[in-house]
Design goal:
Elements lengths: L2 H43 L32 E3 L5 E3 L4 H7 L3 E2 L3 E5 L7 H14 L3 E6 L4 H5 L3 E3 L14 H17 L5 H12 L3 E6 L2 H4 L4 E5 L7 H12 L15 E5 L13 H16 L3 E7 L6 H10 L2 E7 L5 H6 L6 E9 L15 E7 L3 E6 L30
Parallel strand pairs: 4-10, 4-11, 5-8, 5-9, 9-10
Antiparallel strand pairs: 1-2, 2-3, 6-7, 11-12, 12-13, 13-14
Length: 419
């Protein structure tokens, strides 16, 4: 047989071999499938459950199969955020909204005072009152002979009972509606949905305070409140030791003990006031701030410090501002400023201005973008503090040039390309 004939014979035998192999694989697959089905039926008949198939690594696990992880509980008055951040309320709901949740735990907040008006005390008192209402530990240091007397000026929580109508003041139709609603409540029962619980917790997190009423005496006499007189201190060593001892009780390592969950607040009024014994010791004050900031990083507390910026030198003031995690400033509105009254709406209701210079950021590189940097401080019904963005009133063209068109980009004749 020649070479060509052997080649043709080999090519003709190849399809037959492929057909035989495919038939063999088909018979084996059928027999293996029947054997697997028979084994499953036999195990089911014998009372044994079939072994569940292992899910692929690309398949998404069902919620029922995954073990339920416990939700971490936050201390009272603390709101958990993203990236492991936690916040406590500043005592002003609008300020909490502006800052993205409140004051970041582990941060130091500084407020630059105004020499014309003590508006910084409004922020300081609300901050302290919010902590006392939540049962949080408080350390207050101020340049007064009796620091405990300052606690008597803290505002009380705004009462909501007056906003609710009494039954005697309701119309007969309203009384009938309340009676029907009470009958429905008897059948359906008191059902607290998660939304209502979250809504109540959000309201309790940040309270509105009535500046005309003082905080209850039993809250002021709490053993969790410590006071220090900075007027008789000639160095900051005692204050530094007191703050370190206070923060050691609120270390984040102690958060594993669920029975002792608590957050702390440090409020220091006019740290570099002239009546303090350590006045003009600028470098010692800077060393104290650095030490306090380092201790706050590992604690479950927030420190709020007010300081008179006008009596500090420019270089020292810049260093203070650099050390602050959240930097705020307040400014009063003089009554003699009539031009400002024409430009701003609601001028009579404003107390001053709040300027947000810097917002604290931990565990993130996303910058904080604020709607505005300057807000007006107002009293709502002469009771609670609110913050609003400045609204500029329109100015009549006959009275002069507008405030927005005072730049060089506007045309004096009002052309079509007027910026």
């Amino acid at each position: 047989m020649g070479h060509s004939e052997k080649k043709n014979h080999f090519n003709q035998s190849q399809p037959k071999k492929a057909q035989n192999d495919s038939a063999f694989n088909h018979r084996n697959s059928v027999s293996f499938g029947e054997l697997r089905n028979s084994s499953v039926m036999a195990s089911t008949a014998g009372g044994q459950q079939p072994r569940p198939t292992r899910p692929s690594s690309f398949s998404r696990a069902s919620p029922s199969s995954s073990p339920s992880s416990p939700i971490p509980s936050a201390p009272p008055g603390v709101k958990l955020g993203v990236n492991g951040a936690a916040y406590i309320s500043s005592g002003i709901p609008d300020l909490d909204r502006i800052l993205g949740g409140g004051f970041l735990i582990g941060s130091i907040v500084m407020v630059m005072e105004d020499s014309d008006a003590p508006h910084h005390l409004l922020l300081l008192r609300n901050f302290m009152s919010q902590g006392i209402v939540h049962g949080q530990s408080l350390l207050f240091a101020g340049p007064t002979r009796e620091p405990r007397a300052f606690l008597g000026t803290l505002p009380a929580v705004l009462s909501k009972d007056k906003n609710v109508l009494r039954k005697n003041d309701l119309d007969p139709q309203d009384k009938e509606g309340l009676r029907i609603a009470w009958q429905y409540k008897k059948y359906f029962g008191e059902q607290n949905s998660p939304d209502s619980i979250n809504r109540d917790s959000k309201q309790d997190y940040s309270s509105n305070f009535d500046l005309r009423k003082s905080l209850e005496r039993h809250l002021i006499n709490s053993p969790n409140i410590e006071c220090i007189n900075t007027q008789d201190l000639y160095d900051l060593l005692q204050l530094e030791n007191q703050c370190s001892s206070f923060l050691s009780k609120l270390s984040r390592k102690n958060l594993e003990d669920k029975s002792n969950l608590n957050a702390g607040r440090i409020a220091i009024q006019s740290l570099s006031a002239p009546q303090c014994g350590y006045f003009e010791k600028d470098w010692e004050i800077l060393s104290f701030i650095k030490s306090l900031k380092a201790n706050l990083r590992s604690s479950n507390s927030v420190a709020l410090i007010t300081f008179p910026n006008s009596i500090l030198s420019n270089s020292i003031s810049k260093r203070w501002q650099h050390l602050a995690d959240t930097l705020l400033s307040v400014r009063a509105i003089p009554d003699e400023d009539k031009d400002l009254a024409k430009l701003l709406t609601g001028y009579q209701d404003m107390l001053g201005f709040l300027h947000v210079h810097k917002v604290a950021q931990f565990n993130t590189q996303v910058p904080v973008i604020l709607d505005a940097s300057t807000y007006s401080i107002k009293l709502e019904k002469r009771k609670s503090l609110i913050l609003e963005k400045l609204n500029q009133a329109p100015i009549d063209g006959s009275s002069g040039a507008s405030y927005a068109t005072a730049g060089s980009c506007s045309s004096s004749k009002g052309s079509a390309l007027d910026f």
